[in-house]
Automatic annotation (TrEMBL):
This is coproporphyrinogen oxidase. GO terms for biological process: protoporphyrinogen IX biosynthetic process. NCBIfam families: PRK05330.1 (NF003727). InterPro entries: Coprogen_oxidase_aer, Coprogen_oxidase_aer_sf. Its EC number is 1.3.3.3. Residues 48-67 are annotated as: Disordered. The lineage of its organism: Bacteria, Pseudomonadati, Pseudomonadota, Alphaproteobacteria, Rhodobacterales. Signal peptide: none annotated. Residues 51-60 have a biased composition (Basic and acidic residues). Keywords: Heme biosynthesis, Oxidoreductase, Porphyrin biosynthesis. GO terms for molecular function: coproporphyrinogen oxidase activity.
């Protein structure tokens, strides 16, 4: 094994371990929110806990192709359904995935369609309609011809509060500014474009940050940026939950929440790149579709 390969293998190990550590931190924080919810709607319910399931990626020849952990909480005091998935998968890309990667300009897809991918993916749907739904993911992808990072987080309230939107964006900006003051506006604009639903002519939520195919040529710098995107999530989101989870609501607010969830489901099933990649590469379908809400409606 040459030195370059050893270096990349070590970098893969570091990235995979960090995504798992972030998963553990978020799971603990979310269970802490369940425990601390002592007043307001659903406070009399039992605090929710994550159910953890090991996932496996299916390979055509039955060989080891990696997997991960699917952690899902349902019916808690604060979270109606939340999933925090982490995975490290590898193998050979199928024809559809190869074609998609080649269209994005990834080199080597015709001659060496091998890949390695690791990351964390999170979607939270809340009990109280005043609490915003949220999405976050960070990931690293490798092929013999390239590597890159991606990820971000975005807020998806059915009942919008300007103060919540401002806090969410300001927290992300504070984490990104040390990497360059132009970075936050660039990733915010990317999120606004990526999380747009063309057939509805509207955004999925109130935005956030998003990046993909991040390869500046400096692996350490790009990994540090990816870590800070992950680190921004809890301080951006948790204070909003703590503020809104105690607010009373009625049928009109719940109806607005269910309609907005329908919008969220449409986006994830029609446009989301991660959903398409996960299903195309044989990853556990339940883990890939974890993002879907438990209940939704269409008008």
């Amino acid at each position: 094994m040459d030195g370059q390969q050893q270096t990349m293998d070590a970098e893969k190990t570091r990235a995979s371990a960090w995504f798992r550590a972030l998963r553990d931190e978020i799971v603990a924080a979310f269970e802490g929110l369940e425990d601390s919810h002592a007043q307001g709607p659903f406070a009399e319910a039992a605090p929710g806990r994550f159910e953890v399931t090991e996932t496996k990626r299916a390979s055509d020849d039955g060989s080891d192709a990696g997997g991960g952990l699917m952690s899902v909480m349902r019916g808690g005091r604060v979270f109606e359904k939340v999933g925090v998935n982490v995975s490290t998968v590898y193998g050979t890309l199928g024809a559809a995935a190869q074609k998609a990667m080649a269209a994005r300009g990834v080199p080597g897809m015709d001659s060496a369609p091998r890949f390695w991918a690791s990351g964390i993916s999170l979607v939270a749907h809340m009990q109280n309609p005043h609490c915003p739904a949220v999405h976050m993911n960070t990931r690293m992808f490798w092929t013999p011809g390239a590597w890159w990072f991606g990820g971000g987080s975005d807020l998806n309230p059915c009942l919008e509060y300007d103060a919540d939107t401002a806090h969410f964006h300001a927290t992300q900006k504070s984490q990104l500014d040390p990497h360059g003051e132009t970075l936050y506006p660039e990733l915010k604009a990317w999120a606004d474009e990526y999380f747009y639903i063309p057939h509805r002519n509207r955004a999925r939520g109130v935005g956030g940050i998003f990046m993909d195919d991040r390869n500046s040529g400096d692996w350490e710098a790009d990994f540090a940026l990816t870590q800070d995107i992950g680190r921004a999530f809890l301080p951006a989101f948790v204070p909003l939950v703590e503020k809104r989870r105690v607010m009373p609501f009625g049928p009109a607010e719940k109806d607005a929440q269910l309609v907005h969830r329908g919008l969220y489901a449409e986006y994830n099933l029609v446009y989301d790149r991660g959903t398409k990649f996960g299903l195309a590469t044989g990853h556990d379908a339940n883990a890939v579709l974890m993002s879907l809400p438990p209940l939704a409606k269409w008008v």
